[in-house]
Amino acid sequence: MIEPCPSCGYDWPSGAAQPCVTCAGALPQPLRHGPKGPSPLLDGLLALPKGAALLVSTRGTKRWLVPPAIATFGAFVAATWWLYRQVSQWVEHGREWAIAQLPELGAPWRGLAEQAIDQGLSLAAGKLASAFVALSLGLLVSLWAFSLLYELLAGPFLDEVHGVVERRWFGEDPRAARERPEGITTGQCAALLGLCALVGGALILGAELAPWQHATWLAAALSIGFVALLAWRKPAFGAWLRWRTAVELRTVFASLKASSVSGLLLLFALPVLFVPLVGKPLFALFAGFTTALSLLDIPMSRRRWSFATRWHFLSRNPLPLVAFGTCAGLGFLLPVLGPLLVVPCASVGGLWLLVRIDKTHLRRAP
C-alpha cells in the first residue's frame, strides 16, 4: 500500500528509518513556498502559468508534444474527409432514385430532365454538404471532442514530459529510479529497439513487395518473434522491455480513464449549451475544469496512488483545484487552439500543484 511522502508524493512508508529517497522530505528549491507559507488559492491560480513556464524552460519537453498534436489534427482531417464522402454518396443515391422515377420520355426530353435534376442536385448538394460538414465539425468542436481526443493521445507523451520535469526537480526520474530494471543502459536499450525497428521495417517492406496474400501478417509475426528472441537472448533487455511495456499500458489506461471521465461529465453538461448568450462560455469553463482535474491522473498514476488516495486528495483540496480548473476553463474558450495549448500546460501545472500541496493527510496515523 502506497504511503505518499508529504512533499513529493512518492511512496515513503511510515516508520522508515531514512527520509524519503526521492526528495529527502523537503520540496526542491523551485517548489518551496514563500515566507508566509502555502496559499492554496494562489497555488491553484498559478498552476497553469507555472506549467507553461516549465514547458518553455525545461529542455527535452517540447518534442514530446508534437506527435499527439499531429495525430489529433490528422484524425480530424480524416473525419472531415469521411463526412464529405458520406454526403457525396447520399447525393449520388438521390440522383439515381430521381432519374429512376422519370416516366418513359423520348431521348431529347429525358436528357433535359436528367440535366435539370443534375443541376438542381448539384446546387442542393453543395449547400447540403457545406451545411452538414460545418454543422458536424461545429458540433464536434463545441463538444470539445478535440480536447478529449488530444488528451487521450497525449497521455503517454505527457507522462514522458513529467519524467523530464521531475528529473529537473529531483535529479532523476523517481519512477525510473525506483522501478527501472538494472543491468542495461539507456543507450543499449535505444540501440536494441532500433535494431528491432529496422528488422521489422525490412520484413514488412518485403511483405508488401511479395505476391503472397498473407505476407503482411507473416511479417508482423516474424517481427514479434525477433523481439521475443532478442529479449530471451538478452535477459536485461527483456526485463527492461517488460517493465517499459507495463508502464506504457498503465499510462494509456490512465489517459483513457481520464478522457472517459471527462467525456461523461461533458455529456451531462450538454444542456448548458442551450442557455442563451452564456451557454457556450459556461460549457467551455466546465470543459476546461474537468480536463484539468482528469489530467491530475497522470502524476497520480506515476506515484501508484489508489482510488481511495486520489479521492481523499481531491476532496481535501477543493479550493486550489477549483481555481486551477477555472483557469484551464478560461483557456478552453478558444476552440481547438485553446485545448492544444491548455492540455500540456495543465498537465505539467497539475504536477506542480500536486507536489506543492501538503499530503500529510494521505498517510496512515503512526
The number of domains is: 2
Order of helices and strands: HHHHHHHHHHHHH
Count of individual beta strands: 0
- From the helix content, strand content and strand pairing, which structural class follows? mainly alpha
Q: Determine the strand fraction and express it as a percent band.
A: under 5%
Would you identify the regions where 5 or more consecutive residues have pLDDT less than 50? none
How many DSSP helices? 13
The N- and C-terminal alpha carbons lie at a distance of 15 Å
Question: Mean pLDDT across all residues, rounded?
Answer: 77
Radius of gyration: 27 Å
| Largest beta-sheet details | none
The helix content, as a percent range, equals over 70%
Structure description:
- The protein folds into two domains: 276 residues, no CATH class; 49 residues.
- The model has no long low-confidence stretch (mean pLDDT 77).
- It has 13 helices and no strands.
- Helix content is 72%, strand content 0%.
- The protein is an all-alpha fold and 366 residues long.
